[in-house]
Protein backbone atom coordinates (compact mmCIF):
# COMPACT_ATOMS: atom_id res chain seq x y z
CA UNK A 1 0.00 0.00 0.00
CA UNK A 2 2.62 2.43 1.16
CA UNK A 3 4.99 1.48 -1.65
CA UNK A 4 2.21 2.13 -4.09
CA UNK A 5 1.58 5.64 -2.86
CA UNK A 6 5.30 6.40 -3.01
CA UNK A 7 5.30 5.20 -6.58
CA UNK A 8 2.27 7.32 -7.35
CA UNK A 9 3.99 10.32 -5.81
CA UNK A 10 7.06 9.67 -7.93
CA UNK A 11 5.08 9.52 -11.15
CA UNK A 12 3.18 12.67 -10.19
CA UNK A 13 6.46 14.43 -9.54
CA UNK A 14 7.75 13.12 -12.82
CA UNK A 15 4.72 14.33 -14.76
CA UNK A 16 5.06 17.72 -13.08
CA UNK A 17 8.70 17.80 -14.18
CA UNK A 18 7.78 16.95 -17.77
CA UNK A 19 5.16 19.68 -17.84
CA UNK A 20 7.59 22.18 -16.33
CA UNK A 21 10.28 21.34 -18.89
CA UNK A 22 7.76 21.60 -21.71
CA UNK A 23 6.55 25.01 -20.50
CA UNK A 24 10.15 26.21 -20.15
CA UNK A 25 10.91 25.14 -23.71
CA UNK A 26 7.83 26.81 -25.16
CA UNK A 27 8.29 30.05 -23.23
CA UNK A 28 12.00 30.34 -24.00
CA UNK A 29 11.35 29.85 -27.70
CA UNK A 30 8.54 32.37 -27.58
CA UNK A 31 10.94 34.78 -25.88
CA UNK A 32 13.79 34.53 -28.41
CA UNK A 33 11.33 34.93 -31.24
CA UNK A 34 9.87 38.07 -29.67
CA UNK A 35 12.88 39.64 -28.00
CA UNK A 36 13.64 42.18 -30.74
CA UNK A 37 12.73 45.07 -28.44
CA UNK A 38 15.56 44.16 -26.08
CA UNK A 39 18.20 44.72 -28.75
CA UNK A 40 19.59 48.18 -29.37
CA UNK A 41 20.67 47.34 -32.89
CA UNK A 42 17.93 47.26 -35.51
CA UNK A 43 16.81 43.85 -36.67
CA UNK A 44 15.40 43.22 -40.14
CA UNK A 45 13.59 40.12 -41.25
CA UNK A 46 14.30 39.29 -44.88
CA UNK A 47 11.15 39.12 -46.99
CA UNK A 48 12.53 39.23 -50.49
CA UNK A 49 15.76 38.08 -52.09
CA UNK A 50 16.93 38.80 -55.58
CA UNK A 51 20.18 37.60 -57.07
CA UNK A 52 21.56 40.51 -59.01
CA UNK A 53 24.82 39.23 -60.27
CA UNK A 54 26.89 36.08 -60.22
CA UNK A 55 30.39 35.79 -61.53
CA UNK A 56 33.31 33.40 -61.48
CA UNK A 57 36.38 34.68 -59.71
CA UNK A 58 39.90 33.33 -59.53
CA UNK A 59 42.15 34.57 -56.75
CA UNK A 60 45.93 35.08 -57.13
CA UNK A 61 46.55 31.54 -55.88
CA UNK A 62 44.39 29.97 -58.57
CA UNK A 63 41.41 29.17 -56.32
CA UNK A 64 38.14 29.37 -58.20
CA UNK A 65 35.01 30.60 -56.54
CA UNK A 66 31.59 32.01 -57.38
CA UNK A 67 30.92 35.57 -56.30
CA UNK A 68 27.22 36.40 -55.94
CA UNK A 69 25.53 39.73 -55.27
CA UNK A 70 22.11 39.70 -53.61
CA UNK A 71 19.61 42.50 -53.20
CA UNK A 72 17.57 41.92 -50.06
CA UNK A 73 14.42 43.51 -48.79
CA UNK A 74 13.74 43.32 -45.08
CA UNK A 75 11.16 44.54 -42.60
CA UNK A 76 12.53 46.23 -39.49
CA UNK A 77 11.34 44.48 -36.33
CA UNK A 78 12.22 46.93 -33.56
CA UNK A 79 13.00 50.53 -32.64
CA UNK A 80 11.81 53.73 -34.31
CA UNK A 81 11.65 52.32 -37.80
CA UNK A 82 9.64 49.27 -36.82
CA UNK A 83 7.59 48.01 -39.74
CA UNK A 84 9.57 49.98 -42.32
CA UNK A 85 11.00 48.21 -45.33
CA UNK A 86 14.76 48.37 -45.73
CA UNK A 87 16.88 47.57 -48.75
CA UNK A 88 20.19 45.79 -48.22
CA UNK A 89 22.96 44.67 -50.50
CA UNK A 90 24.92 41.53 -49.83
CA UNK A 91 27.85 39.98 -51.58
CA UNK A 92 28.99 36.46 -50.84
CA UNK A 93 31.28 33.80 -52.21
CA UNK A 94 29.90 30.32 -52.74
CA UNK A 95 32.49 28.98 -50.28
CA UNK A 96 31.15 31.34 -47.56
CA UNK A 97 34.42 31.53 -45.64
CA UNK A 98 33.71 35.00 -44.35
CA UNK A 99 30.33 35.98 -45.84
CA UNK A 100 26.85 34.48 -45.92
CA UNK A 101 24.10 33.67 -48.35
CA UNK A 102 20.81 35.01 -47.01
CA UNK A 103 17.34 33.82 -47.79
CA UNK A 104 13.77 34.74 -46.91
CA UNK A 105 13.05 34.43 -43.18
CA UNK A 106 16.56 35.16 -41.94
CA UNK A 107 16.81 37.84 -39.27
CA UNK A 108 19.77 40.19 -39.50
CA UNK A 109 21.18 42.98 -37.36
CA UNK A 110 21.42 46.04 -39.61
CA UNK A 111 22.50 49.65 -39.41
CA UNK A 112 20.04 52.05 -40.98
CA UNK A 113 21.32 54.94 -43.10
CA UNK A 114 19.23 57.95 -42.12
CA UNK A 115 19.32 59.70 -45.49
CA UNK A 116 16.33 59.94 -47.81
CA UNK A 117 13.28 60.04 -45.58
CA UNK A 118 10.55 59.81 -48.17
CA UNK A 119 12.16 56.98 -50.08
CA UNK A 120 12.84 53.45 -49.01
CA UNK A 121 15.35 52.94 -46.18
CA UNK A 122 18.78 51.58 -47.01
CA UNK A 123 21.39 50.16 -44.72
CA UNK A 124 24.12 47.61 -44.24
CA UNK A 125 24.24 44.21 -42.63
CA UNK A 126 26.06 43.90 -39.30
CA UNK A 127 25.45 40.35 -38.15
CA UNK A 128 23.00 37.46 -38.11
CA UNK A 129 20.54 36.95 -35.25
CA UNK A 130 21.63 33.55 -33.99
CA UNK A 131 20.17 33.35 -30.48
CA UNK A 132 17.34 30.97 -31.37
CA UNK A 133 19.75 28.43 -32.87
CA UNK A 134 21.93 28.43 -29.76
CA UNK A 135 18.79 28.01 -27.68
CA UNK A 136 17.57 25.18 -29.88
CA UNK A 137 20.76 23.12 -29.62
CA UNK A 138 20.92 23.83 -25.88
CA UNK A 139 17.43 22.32 -25.45
CA UNK A 140 18.27 19.34 -27.64
CA UNK A 141 21.34 18.78 -25.46
CA UNK A 142 19.38 19.04 -22.21
CA UNK A 143 16.56 16.79 -23.42
CA UNK A 144 18.92 14.08 -24.70
CA UNK A 145 20.91 14.21 -21.46
CA UNK A 146 17.69 13.87 -19.43
CA UNK A 147 16.35 11.05 -21.62
CA UNK A 148 19.56 9.05 -21.53
CA UNK A 149 20.82 9.91 -18.06
CA UNK A 150 17.58 10.67 -16.20
CA UNK A 151 18.60 11.56 -12.64
CA UNK A 152 22.33 11.54 -13.45
CA UNK A 153 21.61 13.49 -16.63
CA UNK A 154 19.82 16.11 -14.59
CA UNK A 155 22.77 16.39 -12.19
CA UNK A 156 25.19 16.70 -15.10
CA UNK A 157 23.19 19.57 -16.57
CA UNK A 158 23.05 21.27 -13.16
CA UNK A 159 26.77 20.86 -12.60
CA UNK A 160 27.58 22.23 -16.07
CA UNK A 161 25.32 25.21 -15.40
CA UNK A 162 26.98 25.89 -12.03
CA UNK A 163 30.44 25.64 -13.60
CA UNK A 164 29.41 28.08 -16.33
CA UNK A 165 28.22 30.54 -13.67
CA UNK A 166 31.48 30.17 -11.70
CA UNK A 167 33.45 30.83 -14.90
CA UNK A 168 31.43 33.94 -15.66
CA UNK A 169 31.89 35.28 -12.12
CA UNK A 170 35.60 34.44 -11.97
CA UNK A 171 36.32 36.15 -15.30
CA UNK A 172 34.22 39.13 -14.35
CA UNK A 173 36.13 39.39 -11.08
CA UNK A 174 39.38 39.15 -13.02
CA UNK A 175 38.39 41.96 -15.35
CA UNK A 176 37.19 44.18 -12.50
CA UNK A 177 40.26 43.78 -10.30
CA UNK A 178 43.24 44.24 -12.54
CA UNK A 179 45.78 43.54 -9.81
CA UNK A 180 44.99 39.93 -9.05
CA UNK A 181 46.79 37.44 -11.24
CA UNK A 182 44.74 35.26 -13.54
CA UNK A 183 46.57 32.24 -12.14
CA UNK A 184 45.37 32.89 -8.59
CA UNK A 185 41.80 33.33 -9.79
CA UNK A 186 42.10 30.16 -11.85
CA UNK A 187 43.51 28.32 -8.84
CA UNK A 188 40.57 29.30 -6.65
CA UNK A 189 38.11 28.47 -9.44
CA UNK A 190 39.76 25.08 -10.00
CA UNK A 191 39.19 24.17 -6.34
CA UNK A 192 35.55 25.28 -6.58
CA UNK A 193 34.94 23.43 -9.88
CA UNK A 194 36.47 20.24 -8.53
CA UNK A 195 34.63 20.20 -5.22
CA UNK A 196 31.24 21.16 -6.66
CA UNK A 197 31.30 18.95 -9.77
CA UNK A 198 32.55 15.84 -7.98
CA UNK A 199 30.15 16.23 -5.05
CA UNK A 200 27.23 16.75 -7.43
CA UNK A 201 28.05 13.93 -9.82
CA UNK A 202 29.30 11.44 -7.24
CA UNK A 203 27.68 12.25 -3.88
CA UNK A 204 29.09 13.12 -0.47
CA UNK A 205 31.27 10.10 0.41
CA UNK A 206 34.86 8.88 0.77
CA UNK A 207 35.14 8.00 -2.92
CA UNK A 208 34.52 11.65 -3.72
CA UNK A 209 37.05 12.89 -1.16
CA UNK A 210 39.73 10.66 -2.64
CA UNK A 211 38.86 11.89 -6.14
CA UNK A 212 38.94 15.54 -5.07
CA UNK A 213 42.34 15.12 -3.45
CA UNK A 214 43.71 13.29 -6.51
CA UNK A 215 42.34 15.92 -8.91
CA UNK A 216 43.88 18.80 -6.99
CA UNK A 217 47.25 17.06 -6.63
CA UNK A 218 47.26 16.05 -10.31
CA UNK A 219 46.49 19.60 -11.39
CA UNK A 220 49.19 20.96 -9.08
CA UNK A 221 51.71 18.57 -10.60
CA UNK A 222 50.66 19.63 -14.09
CA UNK A 223 51.11 23.25 -13.09
CA UNK A 224 54.59 22.51 -11.72
CA UNK A 225 55.69 20.62 -14.85
CA UNK A 226 54.27 23.22 -17.23
CA UNK A 227 55.81 26.18 -15.44
CA UNK A 228 59.13 24.37 -15.12
CA UNK A 229 59.25 23.63 -18.85
CA UNK A 230 58.14 27.13 -19.80
CA UNK A 231 60.70 28.64 -17.46
CA UNK A 232 63.47 26.30 -18.63
CA UNK A 233 62.87 26.96 -22.31
CA UNK A 234 61.65 30.55 -21.94
CA UNK A 235 58.59 29.56 -23.96
CA UNK A 236 60.70 28.70 -26.98
CA UNK A 237 58.72 27.48 -29.96
CA UNK A 238 55.33 28.67 -28.73
CA UNK A 239 53.78 31.11 -31.15
CA UNK A 240 52.01 33.44 -28.77
CA UNK A 241 51.68 36.00 -31.52
CA UNK A 242 49.36 33.57 -33.27
CA UNK A 243 47.16 33.19 -30.22
CA UNK A 244 43.72 34.50 -31.05
CA UNK A 245 41.76 37.12 -29.11
CA UNK A 246 44.49 38.19 -26.75
CA UNK A 247 43.97 41.32 -24.70
CA UNK A 248 46.12 40.25 -21.74
CA UNK A 249 49.52 38.70 -21.11
CA UNK A 250 49.42 35.66 -23.41
CA UNK A 251 51.59 33.40 -21.19
CA UNK A 252 49.12 33.77 -18.33
CA UNK A 253 46.09 33.16 -20.52
CA UNK A 254 47.78 30.13 -22.07
CA UNK A 255 48.78 28.66 -18.70
CA UNK A 256 45.32 29.16 -17.20
CA UNK A 257 43.84 27.58 -20.35
CA UNK A 258 46.10 24.53 -20.01
CA UNK A 259 45.11 23.97 -16.38
CA UNK A 260 41.38 24.50 -16.77
CA UNK A 261 41.28 22.63 -20.09
CA UNK A 262 42.81 19.54 -18.52
CA UNK A 263 40.78 19.79 -15.33
CA UNK A 264 37.73 17.91 -16.64
CA UNK A 265 39.84 15.04 -17.90
CA UNK A 266 41.85 14.90 -14.67
CA UNK A 267 38.62 14.77 -12.65
CA UNK A 268 37.40 11.98 -14.91
CA UNK A 269 40.56 9.92 -14.30
CA UNK A 270 40.50 10.60 -10.56
CA UNK A 271 36.87 9.54 -10.15
CA UNK A 272 37.37 6.44 -12.31
CA UNK A 273 40.32 5.36 -10.14
CA UNK A 274 38.62 6.01 -6.81
CA UNK A 275 35.24 4.49 -7.64
CA UNK A 276 36.67 1.33 -9.16
CA UNK A 277 39.08 0.75 -6.25
CA UNK A 278 36.38 1.43 -3.65
CA UNK A 279 34.16 -0.96 -5.58
CA UNK A 280 36.77 -3.71 -5.29
CA UNK A 281 37.17 -2.99 -1.57
CA UNK A 282 33.41 -3.10 -0.97
CA UNK A 283 33.12 -6.45 -2.74
CA UNK A 284 35.99 -7.94 -0.74
CA UNK A 285 37.06 -5.94 2.30
CA UNK A 286 40.11 -8.16 2.89
CA UNK A 287 41.70 -7.27 -0.42
CA UNK A 288 45.40 -6.45 -0.03
CA UNK A 289 46.91 -3.08 -0.84
CA UNK A 290 49.11 -4.75 -3.41
CA UNK A 291 46.13 -6.22 -5.26
CA UNK A 292 44.39 -2.86 -5.16
CA UNK A 293 47.47 -1.15 -6.54
CA UNK A 294 47.78 -3.64 -9.37
CA UNK A 295 44.10 -3.39 -10.38
CA UNK A 296 44.28 0.40 -10.19
CA UNK A 297 47.30 0.58 -12.47
CA UNK A 298 45.66 -1.85 -14.93
CA UNK A 299 42.56 0.32 -15.15
CA UNK A 300 44.80 3.35 -15.58
CA UNK A 301 46.60 1.75 -18.52
CA UNK A 302 43.24 1.16 -20.18
CA UNK A 303 42.04 4.73 -19.95
CA UNK A 304 45.17 6.82 -20.48
CA UNK A 305 45.17 6.55 -24.27
CA UNK A 306 41.52 7.41 -24.87
CA UNK A 307 41.54 10.23 -22.32
CA UNK A 308 44.56 11.89 -23.93
CA UNK A 309 42.84 11.52 -27.30
CA UNK A 310 39.79 13.45 -26.11
CA UNK A 311 41.89 16.54 -25.38
CA UNK A 312 43.93 16.07 -28.54
CA UNK A 313 40.92 16.13 -30.86
CA UNK A 314 39.17 18.96 -29.04
CA UNK A 315 42.21 21.21 -29.33
CA UNK A 316 43.52 20.35 -32.78
CA UNK A 317 40.21 20.25 -34.69
CA UNK A 318 39.43 23.89 -34.00
CA UNK A 319 42.40 24.94 -36.14
CA UNK A 320 41.19 23.17 -39.29
CA UNK A 321 39.60 26.23 -41.01
CA UNK A 322 42.66 28.40 -40.37
CA UNK A 323 45.01 25.69 -41.68
CA UNK A 324 42.93 25.40 -44.84
CA UNK A 325 43.03 29.18 -45.26
CA UNK A 326 46.84 29.14 -45.02
CA UNK A 327 47.25 26.18 -47.35
CA UNK A 328 44.92 27.58 -49.99
CA UNK A 329 46.86 30.83 -49.87
CA UNK A 330 49.95 28.92 -51.01
CA UNK A 331 51.61 28.77 -47.58
CA UNK A 332 54.02 25.88 -47.08
CA UNK A 333 52.75 23.01 -44.92
CA UNK A 334 55.52 23.29 -42.32
CA UNK A 335 55.01 27.01 -41.91
CA UNK A 336 51.22 26.56 -41.69
CA UNK A 337 51.44 23.93 -38.96
CA UNK A 338 54.05 25.89 -37.07
CA UNK A 339 51.91 29.01 -37.13
CA UNK A 340 48.63 27.33 -36.23
CA UNK A 341 49.28 24.27 -34.14
CA UNK A 342 52.09 24.88 -31.64
CA UNK A 343 49.85 26.23 -28.90
CA UNK A 344 47.16 23.60 -29.48
CA UNK A 345 49.69 20.76 -29.48
CA UNK A 346 51.31 22.12 -26.32
CA UNK A 347 47.90 22.26 -24.65
CA UNK A 348 47.08 18.71 -25.70
CA UNK A 349 50.45 17.28 -24.62
CA UNK A 350 50.41 19.13 -21.29
CA UNK A 351 46.86 17.92 -20.68
CA UNK A 352 48.05 14.37 -21.40
CA UNK A 353 50.79 14.78 -18.78
CA UNK A 354 48.14 15.80 -16.24
CA UNK A 355 45.96 12.81 -17.14
CA UNK A 356 48.73 10.23 -16.96
CA UNK A 357 50.21 11.51 -13.71
CA UNK A 358 46.81 11.48 -12.02
CA UNK A 359 46.64 7.69 -12.46
CA UNK A 360 49.27 6.77 -9.81
CA UNK A 361 48.26 9.74 -7.67
CA UNK A 362 44.66 8.50 -7.74
CA UNK A 363 45.66 4.92 -6.96
CA UNK A 364 47.81 5.80 -3.94
CA UNK A 365 45.40 8.39 -2.52
CA UNK A 366 42.44 6.03 -2.86
CA UNK A 367 44.37 3.26 -1.10
CA UNK A 368 45.19 5.76 1.65
CA UNK A 369 41.48 6.59 2.06
CA UNK A 370 40.55 2.90 2.00
CA UNK A 371 43.10 2.16 4.73
CA UNK A 372 41.71 4.98 6.83
CA UNK A 373 38.29 3.41 6.48
CA UNK A 374 39.74 0.01 7.39
CA UNK A 375 41.31 1.40 10.55
CA UNK A 376 37.98 2.81 11.63
CA UNK A 377 35.97 -0.36 11.06
CA UNK B 1 64.78 22.49 -27.17
CA UNK B 2 61.33 23.86 -27.63
CA UNK B 3 58.43 23.56 -25.22
CA UNK B 4 56.68 21.07 -27.50
CA UNK B 5 59.61 18.66 -27.58
CA UNK B 6 59.90 18.78 -23.79
CA UNK B 7 56.21 18.15 -23.30
CA UNK B 8 56.30 15.26 -25.76
CA UNK B 9 59.33 13.67 -24.03
CA UNK B 10 57.79 14.05 -20.55
CA UNK B 11 54.46 12.62 -21.73
CA UNK B 12 56.19 9.69 -23.45
CA UNK B 13 58.27 8.84 -20.36
CA UNK B 14 55.23 9.06 -18.07
CA UNK B 15 53.13 6.91 -20.39
CA UNK B 16 55.81 4.22 -20.64
CA UNK B 17 56.63 4.22 -16.91
CA UNK B 18 52.99 4.10 -15.83
CA UNK B 19 51.40 2.26 -18.73
CA UNK B 20 54.20 -0.01 -19.96
CA UNK B 21 53.70 -1.39 -23.43
CA UNK B 22 50.14 -0.16 -23.62
CA UNK B 23 51.32 3.30 -22.63
CA UNK B 24 53.85 3.29 -25.45
CA UNK B 25 51.08 2.24 -27.85
CA UNK B 26 48.89 5.09 -26.59
CA UNK B 27 51.65 7.56 -27.32
CA UNK B 28 52.26 6.18 -30.80
CA UNK B 29 48.50 6.31 -31.44
CA UNK B 30 48.57 10.00 -30.57
CA UNK B 31 51.20 10.49 -33.24
CA UNK B 32 49.17 8.47 -35.79
CA UNK B 33 46.13 10.59 -34.99
CA UNK B 34 48.10 13.71 -35.71
CA UNK B 35 49.30 12.43 -39.08
CA UNK B 36 45.82 11.21 -40.10
CA UNK B 37 44.29 14.54 -39.12
CA UNK B 38 46.83 16.51 -41.17
CA UNK B 39 46.32 14.26 -44.21
CA UNK B 40 42.56 14.67 -44.00
CA UNK B 41 42.95 18.44 -43.78
CA UNK B 42 44.97 18.30 -47.00
CA UNK B 43 42.10 16.42 -48.65
CA UNK B 44 39.53 18.85 -47.27
CA UNK B 45 41.43 21.72 -48.87
CA UNK B 46 40.72 20.22 -52.30
CA UNK B 47 37.53 21.85 -53.64
CA UNK B 48 36.66 18.78 -55.73
CA UNK B 49 36.33 16.50 -52.72
CA UNK B 50 33.38 16.71 -50.36
CA UNK B 51 34.69 17.52 -46.84
CA UNK B 52 31.92 15.41 -45.28
CA UNK B 53 33.13 12.30 -47.13
CA UNK B 54 36.70 13.05 -46.04
CA UNK B 55 35.47 13.39 -42.45
CA UNK B 56 33.63 10.07 -42.57
CA UNK B 57 36.69 8.26 -43.91
CA UNK B 58 38.99 10.03 -41.44
CA UNK B 59 36.79 9.23 -38.44
CA UNK B 60 36.63 5.59 -39.54
CA UNK B 61 40.42 5.34 -39.66
CA UNK B 62 40.86 7.32 -36.45
CA UNK B 63 38.48 5.16 -34.46
CA UNK B 64 40.18 2.04 -35.88
CA UNK B 65 43.52 3.35 -34.56
CA UNK B 66 42.12 4.34 -31.18
CA UNK B 67 40.11 1.16 -30.64
CA UNK B 68 41.94 -1.62 -32.46
CA UNK B 69 45.53 -0.44 -32.12
CA UNK B 70 45.57 0.75 -28.49
CA UNK B 71 43.36 -2.14 -27.42
CA UNK B 72 43.07 -5.30 -29.49
CA UNK B 73 40.65 -6.53 -32.08
CA UNK B 74 37.99 -8.34 -30.06
CA UNK B 75 34.27 -8.30 -29.55
CA UNK B 76 34.44 -5.29 -27.19
CA UNK B 77 36.35 -3.08 -29.57
CA UNK B 78 34.34 -4.26 -32.57
CA UNK B 79 31.01 -3.29 -31.02
CA UNK B 80 32.53 -0.03 -29.78
CA UNK B 81 33.64 0.69 -33.34
CA UNK B 82 30.21 -0.02 -34.86
CA UNK B 83 28.53 2.14 -32.22
CA UNK B 84 30.98 5.01 -32.71
CA UNK B 85 30.34 5.08 -36.44
CA UNK B 86 26.55 4.86 -36.01
CA UNK B 87 26.62 7.75 -33.54
CA UNK B 88 28.81 9.86 -35.79
CA UNK B 89 26.52 9.40 -38.77
CA UNK B 90 23.43 10.30 -36.72
CA UNK B 91 25.21 13.30 -35.21
CA UNK B 92 26.55 14.41 -38.57
CA UNK B 93 23.07 14.92 -40.05
CA UNK B 94 22.05 17.06 -37.09
CA UNK B 95 25.29 19.06 -37.16
CA UNK B 96 25.06 19.80 -40.89
CA UNK B 97 21.55 21.12 -40.30
CA UNK B 98 22.76 23.28 -37.38
CA UNK B 99 25.80 24.74 -39.15
CA UNK B 100 23.75 25.59 -42.21
CA UNK B 101 20.94 27.28 -40.37
CA UNK B 102 22.96 29.10 -37.71
CA UNK B 103 25.56 30.27 -40.28
CA UNK B 104 28.54 29.62 -38.03
CA UNK B 105 31.02 28.58 -40.72
CA UNK B 106 34.40 30.05 -41.54
CA UNK B 107 35.83 33.13 -39.90
CA UNK B 108 34.17 35.80 -37.81
CA UNK B 109 34.61 39.54 -37.81
CA UNK B 110 36.64 39.19 -34.60
CA UNK B 111 39.26 37.36 -36.65
CA UNK B 112 39.50 39.98 -39.37
CA UNK B 113 42.95 41.13 -38.22
CA UNK B 114 44.29 37.62 -38.57
CA UNK B 115 42.91 36.83 -41.98
CA UNK B 116 43.83 40.23 -43.38
CA UNK B 117 46.00 39.71 -46.41
CA UNK B 118 44.60 36.27 -47.12
CA UNK B 119 42.23 35.55 -49.97
CA UNK B 120 38.95 34.11 -48.66
CA UNK B 121 37.58 33.11 -52.08
CA UNK B 122 38.89 29.59 -51.86
CA UNK B 123 36.21 27.51 -53.52
CA UNK B 124 36.09 25.18 -50.51
CA UNK B 125 32.67 24.72 -48.91
CA UNK B 126 33.21 26.23 -45.45
CA UNK B 127 29.77 25.23 -44.20
CA UNK B 128 30.72 21.59 -44.60
CA UNK B 129 34.17 22.27 -43.13
CA UNK B 130 32.46 23.69 -40.05
CA UNK B 131 30.44 20.49 -39.68
CA UNK B 132 33.64 18.45 -40.09
CA UNK B 133 35.39 20.45 -37.37
CA UNK B 134 32.61 19.69 -34.90
CA UNK B 135 32.64 15.97 -35.69
CA UNK B 136 36.42 15.77 -35.51
CA UNK B 137 36.52 17.44 -32.12
CA UNK B 138 34.08 14.93 -30.62
CA UNK B 139 35.51 11.71 -32.06
CA UNK B 140 37.88 11.20 -29.11
CA UNK B 141 35.12 11.52 -26.53
CA UNK B 142 32.68 9.30 -28.45
CA UNK B 143 35.13 6.39 -28.81
CA UNK B 144 36.05 6.78 -25.14
CA UNK B 145 32.46 6.40 -23.98
CA UNK B 146 31.78 3.56 -26.44
CA UNK B 147 34.69 1.44 -25.18
CA UNK B 148 33.91 2.31 -21.54
CA UNK B 149 30.45 0.77 -22.01
CA UNK B 150 31.13 -2.19 -24.27
CA UNK B 151 34.07 -3.44 -22.20
CA UNK B 152 32.28 -3.85 -18.82
CA UNK B 153 29.19 -5.21 -20.64
CA UNK B 154 31.35 -8.02 -21.98
CA UNK B 155 32.50 -8.78 -18.41
CA UNK B 156 28.93 -8.74 -17.10
CA UNK B 157 27.84 -11.14 -19.82
CA UNK B 158 30.77 -13.46 -19.13
CA UNK B 159 29.80 -13.69 -15.45
CA UNK B 160 26.06 -13.98 -16.18
CA UNK B 161 25.62 -15.77 -19.51
CA UNK B 162 21.89 -16.25 -18.87
CA UNK B 163 21.11 -12.55 -19.03
CA UNK B 164 18.45 -11.54 -21.54
CA UNK B 165 19.20 -9.02 -24.24
CA UNK B 166 16.95 -6.52 -22.52
CA UNK B 167 18.66 -6.71 -19.13
CA UNK B 168 22.07 -6.65 -20.80
CA UNK B 169 21.01 -3.47 -22.60
CA UNK B 170 19.84 -1.99 -19.32
CA UNK B 171 23.10 -2.73 -17.56
CA UNK B 172 24.90 -0.98 -20.42
CA UNK B 173 22.71 2.09 -20.09
CA UNK B 174 23.22 2.16 -16.34
CA UNK B 175 27.02 2.07 -16.78
CA UNK B 176 26.59 4.87 -19.29
CA UNK B 177 24.60 7.00 -16.88
CA UNK B 178 27.45 6.85 -14.40
CA UNK B 179 30.01 8.12 -16.89
CA UNK B 180 27.73 10.66 -18.60
CA UNK B 181 28.41 13.36 -16.01
CA UNK B 182 32.18 13.05 -16.03
CA UNK B 183 32.36 12.79 -19.83
CA UNK B 184 30.34 15.93 -20.45
CA UNK B 185 32.46 17.59 -17.77
CA UNK B 186 35.68 16.57 -19.51
CA UNK B 187 34.47 18.05 -22.78
CA UNK B 188 33.13 21.18 -21.16
CA UNK B 189 36.43 22.04 -19.48
CA UNK B 190 38.50 21.03 -22.50
CA UNK B 191 36.59 23.42 -24.74
CA UNK B 192 36.51 26.10 -22.10
CA UNK B 193 40.29 25.94 -21.64
CA UNK B 194 40.57 26.77 -25.34
CA UNK B 195 37.95 29.51 -25.29
CA UNK B 196 39.16 31.37 -22.25
CA UNK B 197 41.09 33.95 -24.23
CA UNK B 198 37.96 34.65 -26.28
CA UNK B 199 35.77 35.18 -23.20
CA UNK B 200 38.31 37.58 -21.68
CA UNK B 201 38.42 39.39 -25.01
CA UNK B 202 34.63 39.78 -25.06
CA UNK B 203 34.69 41.22 -21.54
CA UNK B 204 37.65 43.52 -22.16
CA UNK B 205 36.04 44.96 -25.26
CA UNK B 206 32.74 45.50 -23.44
CA UNK B 207 30.62 43.35 -25.68
CA UNK B 208 26.99 43.42 -24.58
CA UNK B 209 25.25 40.16 -23.74
CA UNK B 210 23.21 40.40 -26.94
CA UNK B 211 26.31 40.91 -29.05
CA UNK B 212 28.09 37.94 -27.48
CA UNK B 213 25.15 35.56 -27.83
CA UNK B 214 24.59 36.42 -31.49
CA UNK B 215 28.22 36.65 -32.59
CA UNK B 216 29.36 34.01 -35.01
CA UNK B 217 32.30 32.82 -32.98
CA UNK B 218 30.42 32.43 -29.70
CA UNK B 219 27.52 30.62 -31.38
CA UNK B 220 29.97 28.35 -33.18
CA UNK B 221 31.61 27.42 -29.89
CA UNK B 222 28.32 26.84 -28.10
CA UNK B 223 27.14 24.62 -30.96
CA UNK B 224 30.43 22.69 -30.83
CA UNK B 225 30.30 22.11 -27.06
CA UNK B 226 26.63 21.13 -27.08
CA UNK B 227 26.93 18.92 -30.17
CA UNK B 228 29.83 17.13 -28.49
CA UNK B 229 27.70 16.64 -25.39
CA UNK B 230 24.84 15.30 -27.51
CA UNK B 231 27.24 12.84 -29.15
CA UNK B 232 28.50 11.59 -25.80
CA UNK B 233 24.93 11.08 -24.56
CA UNK B 234 23.71 9.43 -27.79
CA UNK B 235 26.52 6.90 -27.93
CA UNK B 236 25.37 5.41 -24.59
CA UNK B 237 22.08 3.79 -25.73
CA UNK B 238 23.54 3.01 -29.15
CA UNK B 239 26.54 1.14 -27.71
CA UNK B 240 24.37 -0.65 -25.15
CA UNK B 241 21.99 -1.81 -27.86
CA UNK B 242 24.68 -2.88 -30.34
CA UNK B 243 26.77 -4.66 -27.69
CA UNK B 244 23.75 -6.46 -26.22
CA UNK B 245 22.68 -7.56 -29.71
CA UNK B 246 26.14 -8.78 -30.75
CA UNK B 247 26.91 -10.50 -27.43
CA UNK B 248 23.64 -12.46 -27.42
CA UNK B 249 24.03 -13.39 -31.08
CA UNK B 250 27.61 -14.58 -30.83
CA UNK B 251 27.49 -15.64 -27.20
CA UNK B 252 27.12 -19.37 -27.72
CA UNK B 253 29.73 -19.58 -30.43
CA UNK B 254 32.35 -17.82 -28.37
CA UNK B 255 31.78 -20.01 -25.32
CA UNK B 256 32.70 -23.01 -27.47
CA UNK B 257 35.83 -21.35 -28.78
CA UNK B 258 37.03 -20.53 -25.31
From TrEMBL, chain A:
InterPro entries (alphabetical): YibE_F
TM spans (from-to): 15-32, 132-149, 154-174, 180-201, 208-232, 252-281, 302-327, 347-370
Keyword field: Membrane, Transmembrane, Transmembrane helix
Protein name in UniProt: Membrane protein
Species name: Alkalibacillus filiformis
UniProtKB/TrEMBL annotation, chain B:
Keyword Transmembrane recorded: yes
InterPro entries per record: UCP031503_TM (IPR014564), YibE_F (IPR012507)
Superkingdom per UniProt: Bacteria
UniProt entry keywords in alphabetical sequence: Membrane, Transmembrane, Transmembrane helix
Residues spanning the membrane: 6-21, 28-45, 51-69, 81-99, 129-149, 186-203, 223-248
Coiled coil spans: none
Protein's name according to its UniProt entry: Membrane protein
Amino acid sequence: MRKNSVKQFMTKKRIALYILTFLLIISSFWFVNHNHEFYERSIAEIVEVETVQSEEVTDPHGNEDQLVTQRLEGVIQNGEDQGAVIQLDNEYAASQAYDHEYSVGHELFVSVDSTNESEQLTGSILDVKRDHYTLMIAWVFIIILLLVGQRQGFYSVVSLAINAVIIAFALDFYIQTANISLLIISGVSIVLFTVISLLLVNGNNEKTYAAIAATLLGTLFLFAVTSFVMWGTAGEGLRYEEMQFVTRAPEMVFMAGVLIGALGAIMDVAITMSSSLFNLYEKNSNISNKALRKSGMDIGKDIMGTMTNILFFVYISGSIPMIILYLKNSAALGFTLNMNLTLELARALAGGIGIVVTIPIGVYLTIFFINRKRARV
Amino acid sequence: MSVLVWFAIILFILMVVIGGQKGARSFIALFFNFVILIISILFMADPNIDPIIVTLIATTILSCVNLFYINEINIKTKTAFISTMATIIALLLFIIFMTESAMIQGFSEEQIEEIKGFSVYLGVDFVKIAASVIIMSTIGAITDVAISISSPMREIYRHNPDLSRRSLYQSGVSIGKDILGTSTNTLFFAFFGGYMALLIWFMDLNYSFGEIVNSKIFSAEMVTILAAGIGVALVIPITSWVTAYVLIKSGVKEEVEE
